Amino acid sequence: MTMKNYVSNSSTNQPTRMVGTGVVILRRVETEIEVLLIRRGKPPRVDDWSIPGGRQELGETVRESATREIKEETNLTIRNLDLVDVVDATIRDATGNISVQWTLIDFRAFWDCGTAKAGSDATEVRWVPIRKLKKYDLWDETLRVIIEATHLPNSRDKVKYSND
Questions:
Q1: At 155, is the pLDDT very low, low, confident or very high (cuts 50, 70, 90)?
Q2: If you ran DSSP here, which 8-state letter would residue 7 be given?
Q3: What is the CATH number of the domain that holds 57?
Q4: Number of domains, the chain
Q5: pTM of this prediction?
Q6: Taking Cα atoms as reference points, which of 129, 134, 149 lies closest to residue 53?
Q7: Backbone phi and psi for residue 42, each to the nearest 5 degrees, phi listed first
Q8: Rounded to an integer, what distance in angstroms lies between the CA atom of residue 122 and that of residue 76?
Q9: 79-98: pLDDT as tens digits
Q10: Domain range enclosing 102
Q11: End-to-end CA distance of the chain
């Protein structure tokens, strides 16, 4: 898989390995299941819609990373964090060599409380009904992970109702 719009901060020509976490956050509004999308404010994929998440910090578990990123990017509290998939993505330089390799660990969680608002790396947040996701021109892997998350056991039964 390749990712676009990545600007490396590395001053060396050595490939960089990165670990990131993403979270498909689900909630129920009346009869619909919604997922929280963010508009990315920083590379990779700047200005694209995606699921919230970010880079794992040294010393964090991936679950701690996912929970921290959600709080920083969306102001939400989540519950029932379950693994969906692990996605490998590479970014190539102008000569075709790999400059960055990402390992993206994607989870599914349920909205617990809080009002979604953009913070840190997100410029916008939006609850989107699953049936309207195609309008957001998501990266193919992001769309696949969201759909897969909705099919995990208990995805529909544990989604909390919102009055928004």
A1: low
A2: -
A3: 3.90.79.10
A4: 1
A5: 0.84
A6: 149
A7: -140, 160
A8: 13
A9: 999 999 999 999 899 999 99
A10: 16-149
A11: 36
